[in-house]
Structure formats: C-alpha cells, structure tokens
Amino acid sequence: MRIRPTILRFFLGAALVLSACGEIPDKAPSEEKVVEWGEVPQEFNPTIASVDFRTTGIEKLNVDIFSFKKDIEIIYDENMTTNAGSLILYKVWKGSASWGTVSIKSEGKNLEIKSLGDYHCAIKIKDKKIEELTGGCYVKIRIVLPKGSEIEVYNVGKLLSKRFIVLTTEEFLEKIVGEPFVSKKFILIQEYLQSYAGTTKRPQLSTNQLGVVLGEFDRTEHKFNVLKALHRAVTDRHNLSDMIDREFKSTERQKAREIVGWQ
Q1: How far apart are CA 244 and CA 4, in angstroms?
Q2: Cα 155 to Cα 1, 25, 74, distances in angstroms
Q3: Dihedral angle at the C-alpha atoms of 259, 260, 262, 263, nearest 10 degrees?
Q4: Taking Cα atoms as reference points, which of 135, 139, 164, 168 lies closest to residue 149?
C-alpha cells in the first residue's frame, strides 16, 4: 500500500498517529512497513537494539514502547531457547536522540515491557522512505519468541498473538456468584465464552455448575437467556432434564427443554 506523506511527532504522553497505516488485526500482526529498513540512508544512523527477557511461567506479555503501534509483529523462532524472548528495536536518529530506558517487570504470570523517560521524534515519511528526521525515532519493532510459545502478546493493549488464556469455569463461577448486578452477570457469561474463541479449548460446565449460574437469576426470561448461552458447554447432557426440573417451574420446563434440544 502506498503511504501518503506523513509527519510523525511524538513527545512523552502524546499519541503516535500515522494516518495512512491500518490497525493491527487481533489475531495476525500487521506486515505493513512504515519504513523500508534496508533502504534507510546512513545519514539517519539506522540502528538495531535488542532487549532480552525470560518468559518462565509467563502467560501474558504487555509491550508499550512509547505507544509505538505500527510495523510491529511477533516472530516465532525455532532456534530460540525455551522460556526466552527478545525485543528487537529498529531505530533511526539525526542530530541528538533521547530513547529513555526499557523497563522489564514481571508480576505473577504477566510480563510488562515498557519505555520510561523522554522520547523526542519528528520524522517525515513518503513512500516508506524517510525524507526528514530530527531526533530519534522507532520505525519497526519485532518480538521474538520460541516456536510453539503459548503466550498472549499485547502491544499498547491490543492483542497481537493468538488467544491462549481462558477464563476457567471455577474462576467464572466465583465471579458470577460474587457479582451483585444482573447486567454485569450477563457480561461475565459473555467474557467466559469469548475467552475460548480462537483457542483449541472449549468451555466445560457440569449440569450442577449450570444450575449454580441459573440460580443467580430470578426472572424467567433471564434464565432462558442463560440456558441458551451456556447449555452447549454442558458435559453431562444426560442430566440436563433433571437440572431443568430443579431450576425451572413446571410451566417453564417445556420451553427450557426445547432450548437444549430435549423436545
């Protein structure tokens, strides 16, 4: 795609906007190039920096390098050591440059990599070529992980990798029982089911667990909606009829059986 002449200006706390670049899809990092790296003139001092990190026990990686969002993707390297990772930063600069520092912080199963300090970038790009540059700018970022890594990777809050983390049934039940508002209970049901989208896993509920969820709703129509949403996740479907007898009034049971396919 042809990139229109664009001015990028970034200072700490400001948003970085490149008007001609599309958003990164949720499940496939963008391969669009902001700058043709191999054609960057030496006057702009093209430099590649690498930041290594460990991923032992990590399920989620959050990256935020001064809100850089363009031309960033994940590379799964079959030669990389297990539980290792690298952040590759492609930089250009002219005159003086301020890059701040890269902070790596782990908390539980989450790993956060972000930039701190000052960053001053003014760049003019046309047809993937730098025309003007003052200060130092990131133009490309690669996140390298071992092949087969099942780590959810986010850049500035947006999912880059496939989804791997699911909301377990036990966590879901704990949340929905503890939530006092009906509207938010429905949101939790949606979050539970959507957490499995794009993964090789599927939600699994027993009829007793589905009964717990149904017990959180008083209105009949709400109960029917819950049953519609969750009955396909039930693993012991032979017990559905008995569960319906327990959770629904006699006048409601026929419709409940129709919802689950027991007509």
Answers
A1: 61
A2: 23, 12, 10
A3: 10
A4: 164
Instruction: List pLDDT tens digits, range 63-81.
Output: 999 999 989 999 999 999 9
Residues 6+ apart with CB under 8 A from 21: 3, 30, 32, 34, 70, 71
- Rounded Cα gap, residues 154 and 60, in angstroms: 8
> Does 119 score more than 80 pLDDT?
yes
Q: pTM to 2 decimals? A: 0.65
